Amino acid sequence: ADLAMADAKQKGRNTWQWYQGDELRITEDAVMLRHDLHEALQKEQFELYYQPIVEAISGRIRGFEALIRWHHPERGMISPGVFIPLAEQTGQIISLGRWIMHRVCQDTARHATMQARNAQVVPVALNISSLQFRREGFLQDIQQALTISGLPPEWLELEVTESVLLDGPEQAIELINTLKAMGIKVALDDFGTGFSSLSYLRDLPIHKVKLDRAFIKDITKDSRNAAIVQGIITMAHHMDLVVVAEGIEELDQQEDLIRRKCDLLQGFLFAKPMPLANVMALPEVLPSTHQN
Ligand code: C2E
Ligand code: MG
Ligand code: MG
Ligand code: MG
């Protein structure tokens, strides 16, 4: 049923599409998960994994993305692709999101301390749900997480999707400008998969776009995909934006994206998301077959 839910989410975007016949089972499942989610926060069943983001040419680690994992006592590992949309539906994303924010800042502060000798900032990107982002009190929450952890703001990066524009672009622009003034950069995630027009790219004070894996998957086989990717990279660079491609699994994809001047890469070819302890043990440069 978890898979069916993930699948339904894919098809229905922000709405749930229940399958006939499976309807009751899936609904019951959602109710159970909702209850479990509440308990999971109390019982600390969540863990943050971190995936390296590397410079395309050298494989040198330039950052990390924080990705939440749920170790469910009976169901094992549940994918965030399943429970994040559910938590958004129930509103639990607010408390879960706040917990994630604090944990990522604490983890990153530890990592920053370890890295201090290199005198180089290796920012950690935190995924922010649009509901969380557009909610009053978001800035105070971020500020509090930074203060409590002692993390310098330039070590934190936020990943938002274009759905932050849902209530109109003005609030989003203002918020991103405020974050920028605080020293926190904002990246636009899953770029190219949403509905909005390109003009928002012009208006949003972001510093980075992340190309969705959907475009990267067949980049070496599908010339239309490749054309879109090349177009986005060229356009983004003209706007002084950094471009990250996600979901790199093959050496061919890396080579292709180097030729297209993509700045940063993220994917299983370099490393899968991993617990914080493993991050501490990573070399500075990842070979294209690292995978772990
Ligand atoms: P995303 O932000 O686009 O994250 C990238 C996803 O691609 C992650 O899936 C990552 O594990 C996966 N990935 C990275 N490299 C590869 C690769 O080479 N091949 C393949 N097949 N996949 C790759 P994950 O961790 O399952 O997360 C799924 C989505 O859940 C994320 O998509 C994000 O939208 C959401 N999410 C994850 N963690 C958080 C969180 O802490 N807060 C919020 N609000 N959302 C989160
Ligand atoms: Mg992301
Ligand atoms: Mg993404
Ligand atoms: Mg994505």
UniProtKB/TrEMBL annotation:
Organism superkingdom: Bacteria
All residue ranges annotated as the EAL domain in the record: 30-287
Name by which UniProt lists this protein: cyclic-guanylate-specific phosphodiesterase
Species of origin: Vreelandella arcis
Organism classification: Bacteria, Pseudomonadati, Pseudomonadota, Gammaproteobacteria, Oceanospirillales
